[in-house]
Design a protein that fits this description.
By secondary structure, the protein is α+β, with helices and mostly antiparallel strands. It is built from four helices and eight strands, in the order H-H-H-E-E-E-E-H-E-E-E-E.
């Protein structure tokens, strides 16, 4: 079998659009995150502000033993020039970006923001969750950046938790 045919066959897994080499550990982690989100939605319902869901989700994830960082600051450079700092609301286990929303309907901008965060900061997976949905399962979207993609002209200089966050390390990426 030719290399092209093999690569094309491996591009998707069970017809769901996932790359064949997508790490099973990320699927397991995203499953835990979604389970925690379902628990928060079951307890609180669909009618609250985003920040309430975010804080409840952080609490649920941490009680499950997962590392959660809030308000991560990403500093990048474009053609050697520093760009303004970008803030990522939630990152779980330094692997998955979470976009928490509580709106009547998600917009293209909401989707683009999560996709932009995972591409810009080189994370493999993002989850966009709209807690305003009567059934949370209708408001969860996966954004995949695998294999890792980023612009060749943009380099991430590091990640740092904001001063209001509990962590304060800078990560080289």
């Amino acid at each position: 079998m030719s290399t092209e045919v093999t690569e094309a066959t491996q591009r998707t897994q069970s017809g769901r659009g996932l790359p064949a080499q997508f790490p099973p550990s990320l699927n397991a982690l995203s499953h835990k995150i979604i389970g925690a989100a379902f628990e928060v939605h079951t307890q609180l319902g669909p009618a609250l502000r985003e920040k309430i869901y975010e804080e409840a989700l952080v609490s649920e994830l941490r009680s499950a033993g997962l590392g959660v960082e809030q308000q991560l600051l990403v500093r990048a450079a474009y053609r050697g020039r520093a760009l303004p700092i970008q803030t990522i609301d939630l990152v779980v286990e330094r692997s998955i970006v979470l976009g928490v929303r509580s709106v009547r309907a998600l917009t293209d901008t909401d989707h683009a923001q999560v996709l932009g965060h995972i591409t810009f900061a080189r994370f493999p997976l993002g989850l966009l969750m709209n807690f305003a949905c009567p059934h949370l399962r209708d408001g969860i979207y996966r954004k995949i950046n695998f294999p890792m993609h980023t612009s060749p002209l943009v380099g991430v200089l590091g990640l740092q938790a904001s001063p209001s966050s509990s962590a304060s390390s800078v990560l080289p990426l």
